[in-house]
Design a protein that fits this description.
Low-confidence stretches: 41-80, 200-212
GO molecular function: zinc ion binding
GO cellular component, one term: cytoplasm
CATH topology of one domain: Jelly Rolls
Protein name: Tripartite motif-containing protein 67
Organism: Oryzias melastigma (Marine medaka)
Oligomer: single chain
Pfam families: ANCHR-like_BBOX (PF22586), fn3 (PF00041), SPRY (PF00622), zf-B_box (PF00643)
Strand order of the largest sheet: 22-23-34-25-30-31-32
CATH superfamily of one domain: SPRY domain
Largest sheet: 7 strands, antiparallel
Radius of gyration: 41 Å
Length: about 700
Amino acid sequence: MEEELKCPVCGSLFKEPILLPCSHNVCLMCARNITVQTPDGETPVQSRASGSSDYDYLDMDKMSLYSETDSGYGSFTPCQLKSPNGVRVFPPVLPQRHCSLTCPLCHRSVSLDERGLRGFPRNRLLESIVARCQQNRASSSSSSSSSSGAPKCQLCDRNPVDATVMCEQCDVYYCGACQQRCHPSRGPLAKHRLVPPPRQVAAGGAAMASGQPPVAARKPATCVDHEAENFSMYCCSCRAPVCTKCLEEGRHGKHDVRPLAVMWKQHKCQLSQALNGVSDKAKDAKEFLVQLKNMLQQIQENGVEFEACFVAQCDSLIEALTRQKAKLLTKVTKEKEYKLKVVRDQITHCTMKLRQTTGMMEYCLEVLKENDPSGFLQISDALIKRVTSSQDQWVKGALEPKVSSDFDLVLNTDSLLQTILQLDFCHGKVEPGPSVPPAPFLQLEKCCTRNNSATLAWRVTAPTSTPIDGYILELDDGNGGQYREVYVGRETVCTVDGLHFNSSYNARVKAYNTIGVGPYSKTVVLKTSDVAWFTFDPSSAHRDIVLSNENLTVSCNSYDDRVVLGTAAFSKGVHYWEVRIDRYDNHPDPAFGVARINTIKDMMLGKDDKAWAMYVDNNRSWFMHNNSHTNRAEGGINKGSTVGILLDLVKRTLTFYINQKQHGPTAFESLDGVFVPAVSLNRNVQVTLVTGLEVPKNLNQ
């Protein structure tokens, strides 16, 4: 975690950190050092000594919003001065116009307003964590130090002596001799900062002896513009805590402002949830490192074993093979070294990423321990993004070995003597091993739709080493939604019924065998019919029902009402069909409408709760559902009349038209599920069904 607590400019633990608009942090003194004037400003003038320890801020020009397309002019222009961490610094400047500061991490520049560095909020949360870390370090140093109170050198082999310096970057104590031998002030180590080690007065006073006062409870955060006001609200538009006076002044009048405590808890919850994902990835990474380290030993053992077998084969050959043996042995060694190098590089890379992730996790856990809402919300958005981004780094391929521990080299000893000089390794196995089936090929010329059914055909072109056990056909929901399995079996032709009318379905297929499931085929799009074509269904009709005219005309043998259903089913869209009255004797009451599949079929349609219908005589009509009669309307039927039924599952209505005169609409109480056209009649009525009709514009209400 300590890397999260070090300033990117000086490389030391943060001192008086301030939060930049890009969500990165720098020390206050470091921010002064990297603040420069833009070309429009005047020449920088030397200010008072940069070593001043007072806590005043530079007074700079008005801060503008930083731009993604900033020219980059700022702290990264050529300069001879560098911080211990390699960042170029500049002499302090007096308060002037056109001053800017460039973040040393993301290189985004921001101009300063008249408040100067006071315009950046102080990261009190980070400051508290740094202080707590220093206090813990001082306590641990106190418990391990000698009675003289000085920490011991950590590199002395025997009888460690008192340390004379400590490297802030390495976090190691050195005596004079070990410092000259192991940490010389030259080369890359010349940038490290060596400081005197803390002296311990007593075990109980470790924090005071190291110059670090105990961490005290912080006062509630106050507004930068109204120092007497505490933060009480949080502006979601500005992503900053505000006080009541800021709201009274109208700065955030049209912004989304919410209570500070609510947003604090919400962001803590988001960060905790993101940490759970990263924690799982870190656990997988640790297991992956163990796997890679085991692979090193396995590769070593397999390499030695392979070399021994190869040498035994070569020794059994004639003398002419001797010269070629050395060349082939070199290839084996190179293959082994290549595999070892790849695995070692992968271990190094994965270890570095894991260390960064672990450090970030520890830092986030420390942040979650804080009870300062405003301080937490200052950095929560950036931390959530970092945690999410860190989780995305652990993709599936990142936790898989790049090479195999096996050596895919085969030596064929059956070659003839005259081919020995051309003998070489064969990369890969001699015979392909078992594998999953390839992707099937959809035969577009055989794929078609009819009404609300779709037929698909496919085949496998490439040969497979393992026989195919079956296929899995998947279709989406007709709206581009998730796929679902509609067929599993060995056949290569499948017809899917009961689809929605006027819908486009995406279909794909894959094969499987004893090894596993193969890849998907290319996707084919199938569009169902715009209008519904259907007949009466003889399989579900009452036994007294008589069908003729290719199941389009229906009559009945009973004086009681009997129900017959259609072969189509509807669950969305708008649908229209008509029924023509062929025979009408003795003024019966036939009913027309829609029903569930399991509606009662030995009484009038609409008397149970599974049907919605209009029953009509020669003078008037009624709407009926669950034996409830409503919406009486004048106008009846006779021989030759036409009854139109309009089912609108979008508006949730059912409308009837008797000789084009509207009856309804009537609203559905329930529209979930599947509805089928339905008719009930007795022996005094005969009707004919007319389908495949578009919705008449003058009828669609």
